Amino acid sequence: MTTRRSGWTHSAEGHILQSFQSKSGGLKYNEVARCGEYRTERLILRVRRMAAAG
What we know:
- By secondary structure, the protein is mainly α.
- It contains three helices and no strands.
- The protein is flat and about 40 Å long.
């Protein structure tokens, strides 16, 4: 399935989110350590739901 605004598939979004990792942990690791969750992924899922709702 392709998102309306970005034109990316859901699997492409997942790949992009996972690509922000580094030897020191990266985005996901740092957000989980700091916030207790992967905030960026949650926000992207929220935007996806809002776009689907119209």
